[in-house]
Amino acid sequence: MMMETAVYTREFLFVKEMMDKGELGKIQFLRGSHQQNMSLPGWPDYWYGFPPCTTPRTPSALSCLSSEGEVESVVCFGSGTIREEYSKKYGSPFAIETALMKLRSSDLSCEVTRSLFDTIRQYRGELRRVRHELSFEWEQLAGEKPVLYSGYEDAKRVEVPDFGSRLPKEIAPYTVHGVYDEQHEHTSFIQGAGHGGSHPHLAHEFIRAIVEGRESAMDSRRAANWTWPASALTSRQ
After folding, report:
1. Whole-angstrom distance, CA of residue 142 vs CA of residue 139
2. Whole-angstrom distance, CA of residue 27 vs CA of residue 42
3. Using the 8-state DSSP alphabet, how is residue 26 labeled?
């Protein structure tokens, strides 16, 4: 099982539930992004200078799973430059990389954007789904609410519920409270906003797949589909 946090965030589960109920209509476009300023001290040394789209799992997963599609082809473009002491470590100068992915047996294309260094941006994982009847857009700033678009010019912010009720009562509280707090900080958890309450969902799915003798929701095929575009980004500009 691939332990990808993005597909168990509250926002993704909210959109997936609407999709399963048939409330969104035909999907027209998908966009996923992961923007984070890791230039700050406190990260392990191996992170600094890491090429943004070498591990585009999070935005790829958001895009692909929300359409149940598989990536057929991809092209990636780099933009901007990071400081020299970062770029020489992995040989990648780009501050931001954006990939365009074509989905197999589908009329859909997806945009995936990732930035890690020398870009001023509040931490943000994003899913944007443009559909025929309703469109969903992740909040732009922490503390805001996502937006649902409908009609021609109608838009409203929506309250995304917690999905701890889907879990056993023993671990459900950990979707809203982790082991890290102001006295026990961890850079990844604090800046990553707790990964949207996903951790207990991941642990539960992993154990249930073993107990039930089945493939996990994020099995090897799906994991490969989310990660192979990184190895295929040979047309970086």
Report:
1. 7
2. 40
3. S
Q: Is the pTM of this model over 0.70?
A: yes
d(CA 69, CA 63): 8
**pLDDT for 171-220, tens place per residue?**
898 887 655 556 655 555 554 446 788 889 999 999 999 999 999 988 98
∠ Cα 24 29 30 (to 5°):
90
Count the neighbouring beta carbons within 10 Å of the beta carbon of residue 137.
16
CA within 13 Å, CB half, 140 = 2
Residue type, 218: M
Taking alpha carbons only, the member of 100, 99, 101 closest to residue 53 is 99
The total of other beta-carbon atoms located within 10 Å of residue 79's CB is: 14
